[in-house]
Amino acid sequence: MLLNKRILVGICGGIASYKAVDLVSRLQQAGALVDVIMSERADEFVRPLTFSSLSHRPVYSDLWEPSGKAAETHIALAEEADLFVVVPATANTIAKLAHGVADNMLTAVALATKAPLLLAPAMHQNMYTHPATQANITLLRERGVFIVDPEVGRLASGEVGLGRLPDTSVLLGAINVVLGRNGDLAGYRVVVTAGGTQEPIDPVRYVGNRSSGKMGYALATEARDRGAHVILISGPVVLDVPYGVEVRRVETAIQMRDAVHDAVIDTDVLVMSAAVADFRPSEVATQKLKKSESQELNEQNGFFLRLVRNPDILEELADSVDANTGNERLERRLVRVGFAAETSNLIAYASAKLVAKRLDLLVANDVSRSDSGFGTETNKVHIFHANGAVEDLPVMPKTGVAAAIWDRIVSLLSTT
């Protein structure tokens, strides 16, 4: 998404400008061509040499330098940009941009460019919530400027309040959202499930699995970067929610089933990458079970737990959609993608699952491999197609697997 994109990063004179150092570095590492433009006072906080060293390009700040080349430069920068992001955006610069003031290099380029403008405000909470600042932000939004809202946190003053610049991961997410708004999934609504489920035994214990949710979160992020409206239905994980993705949290298979049935209304694609538990305890104790009190302990001190089957979400959807192609709950043709985590006979089990659940695609992996499956950063998958084709993909990062899966889904969408 960022490879070879020309991104302007405007740096304003605020203490949060130190965070822009990491942003410029991450953008450059992702393959973007980054040009940094600093306001007059920004170099009081971070020296231009820092940014030029990371971007490997000149830093621009003086609109009034004596050679007059800045007049030509600011137009060239404006015309070549794919995106102009201002981070941190101070109250002063926000006011200038709202009212068309172009008295420095940063604001002059912002006024001259047709590239989308993304602002990340950061300032003391009183300045941010002031009616003048809020009116300026509202005006900029109305003009199509993208705003990354500040967070509540510790401010430079030592107070805790609204006005803190979000972390780099959030800023990168916002950048990808803006750059991907016209991608090959623009206008599509997709649902991705991720993580495992936890089936309670009592208030303390549960039956679960080893799913980390990394594959599902990579799928949700990739769909977002291609312009889709993404609903991520997530079981318990320790991952940050991707910026711009709507998350709905669940714990049990029943909750996952209900959330999926609710979310797929008017949805184009369902990707069920979650590791949903096949079974759940038949009864859930209201209090923590004690070893000394449990009537389920036998004379060898063993514990008996009766399990019952959980609903099969994909199978239910297949029955409801295929039994009635005019199903009123699914007004669009729903592309359905399933996952199969296997430890043996992968081809046979995955092929049978694809047919039984009437899927468009099934992605299968051998989770007994050290480079594939739960908790790993890479994955080794086979993609099974409804027409009988099977693709054997090489080991690659889960982000790469996600891109490959969405490439196949986009092809299916183009034929529906």
Protein model, in words:
The structure is a single chain. The longest helix is centred in the C-terminal third of the chain and has 17 residues. With 416 residues, the chain is α/β, with parallel strands linked by helices. Helix 4 packs across helix 7. The strands form six sheets. It has an eight-stranded mixed sheet with strand order 13-12-9-14-17-18-20-21, sandwiched between helices. It is built from 13 helices and 22 strands. It has two domains: 174 residues, Flavin prenyltransferase-like (Rossmann fold), CATH 3.40.50; 199 residues, CoaB-like (Rossmann fold), CATH 3.40.50.10300. A hairpin with a 5-residue loop joins strand 10 and strand 11.
List the keywords.
416 residues; 22 strands; 2 domains; alpha/beta; elongated; eight-stranded mixed β-sheet; Rossmann fold; six-stranded parallel β-sheet
Describe the structure concisely.
The chain is of the alpha/beta class and 416 residues long. Helices cover 33% and strands 22% of the residues. β1, α1 and β2 (33-38) form a beta-alpha-beta unit.
Write the layout of secondary structure elements.
Layout lengths: L5 E6 L5 H13 L3 E6 L9 H8 L3 E2 L8 H12 L2 E7 L1 H8 L6 H8 L4 E5 L3 H5 L1 H12 L3 E2 L3 E4 L5 E5 L3 H12 L9 E6 L4 E2 L5 E2 L6 H12 L3 E6 L11 E4 L3 H11 L5 E4 L6 E3 L25 E3 L3 H10 L12 E8 L3 H11 L4 E6 L11 E2 L1 E5 L4 E3 L3 E2 H17 L2
Parallel strand pairs: 1-2, 1-4, 2-3, 4-5, 5-6, 9-12, 9-14, 12-13, 14-17, 17-18
Antiparallel strand pairs: 7-8, 10-11, 15-16, 18-20, 19-22, 20-21
Helix pairs in contact: 1-2, 3-5, 4-7, 9-13
